[in-house]
Amino acid sequence: MTSKAYPSVRMRRMRRDAFSRAMVRENSLSAANLIWPVFVIEGENRTQAVPSMPGVERVSIDILVTRAKEAAALGVGAIALFPVIEGSKTPLAEEAYNDNGLAPRAVRALKAAVPDIAVITDVALDPYTSHGQDGLIDESGYVMNDETVAVLVKQALTHARAGVDFVAPSDMMDGRIGAIRAALDADGHIQTKIISYSAKYASAFYGPFRDAVGSSGNLGKSSKETYQLDFANSDEAMRECALDVEEGADMLMVKPGLPYLDILARVRDEFKMPVAVYQVSGEYAMLKAAAANGWLDYRKCLMETLICFRRAGASAILTYGAVDAARWMRE
Ligand code: PBG
Q1: Ligand 1 binding pocket includes 126 (Cβ within 6 Å)
Q2: Which residue ranges form the domains of the chain, and what is each CATH number?
Q3: Is 283 in the pocket of ligand 1 (CB under 6 A)?
Q4: Is 224 designated active site?
């Protein structure tokens, strides 16, 4: 069958020149869309490489502040803090709500020194539990929902009192968004925003992150399948999002990123509200490993993935390549 459109219609006409390609480009990326996840350790002037995440370092708070200034100067929208707790891991994760713990101290230092970059803290217990789960467990090892939510609320309040801009519950307990919102409001933190890890899947792509925060050893053979989403499911993610919207989330999040673009597009389409996506540690490690072998161009592939997230509907993107990308966008 011959097309009636061709040869009058030639799609390639608009693609021939850089000016017409640029004129009709449907999506764009700015540094303001980027959220930079960073691993924080105790001490002074300390950095530690994370072997499974080339280019990523754990840093002490003083170095974090210096790096945050650089990121802010490049226009990066936010920093997401992940504390690495070296001692004091306990079954009940008491350190998670210590007002003088590593996370709240990092928040105070950042808000004092670099006020123009947003600070996001993770609300979940896995850096603090001796068993590596995101919540409190019973005798059988099952993560208990309501008991965990009570601790998450205390943790979120600790972060809010330190002046954090967003709390980001990444634990996947039921009802935690509503409980955290109510507690924040009751304590006068009506402006503290909640970015909810609404559709967070039980994914093997978190492997390098667990090395970075040192929870993989503690977790051992246990999994997070009794609370994180089954990666075969999509409708269930929509229900999770709907509940978080109802409970007061300011932003939703889909995680991981690239293998879950369908979920991201669906969430954006159904909820018409700001959605973040997390390009997780394993995705970053894949790009870096291929680039180290000379098989992929890290810069080109990273920038492509970031635009793909925007095309699928992401407002914000958590990526370990945030500073790299922001720097390249300046060139
Ligand atoms: C823990 C948490 C995880 C990540 C962010 N917060 C890991 C997990 O759920 O086991 C993963 C991030 C990444 O892989 O980059 N609550």
Answers
A1: yes
A2: 29-330 (3.20.20.70)
A3: no
A4: no
